[in-house]
Amino acid sequence: MWHVNIFTMFPEAFPGTLGVSLIGRALSQKKWQLNLVDLKQFPTQSDRIDSVPFGGGSGMVLSPITFEKAFNSLSDFQKQQKKFYLSPRGRKLTQQDMLYFSKCPGITMLCGRYEGVDQRILDFYEFEEISIGDFVLMGGEVAAMAFVEGIVRLLPEVVGNDESIRTDSFQNNLLEYHQYTKPRNFHGLDVPEVLVSGNHKKIEVYRITQSKSITKLRRPDLWDTYISSSLSDLF
Question: Mean of the pLDDT values across residues 200-224?
Fold first, then answer.
């Protein structure tokens, strides 16, 4: 069973969005496991879990002593999982990461708060810093939920229709095509005729063409990657 360990000062934030819809159902059916570690349960001798930063500055920093105690509460198996610290200064998370980690036994995440965590936690325990985008949140909990959801939806038997995963944005370095449903006309806007033609070959070509044009317009960086990978496949 795939599992995730999440170190947080606010375990009450979970499962949050991880407890609803298909992800939540998979959690209740034990297709994956969520292990929350409340950092507040592991204070230092001063009965705190954080302190002011050396060198001055605002905010509070998570103590390495607190984290050491919390980490030692894990089993030997849990301690061996790849570890991530959710941080805006980290490497940006990608769909390829989701695919890779969905095939691993599990991962461990550390959610920062306030001014962050002591750098020695990241260095000693070999955390990789990872970001969900170029913006700043109040803490790592929302980012952790996004990371976990992106992985869990790729696990076997979580999403009923595997085809919906194969056509996701970022699969094959392309963004997803537009989707339509009933009614065929909405305030003068019609569903593209090809989608109601019944010609599956034409529909497939139309959708691929759409994906390409959307990617080229909205994500030229991704489009360049797609072109490069397409050219490499020719050799």
Answer: 93
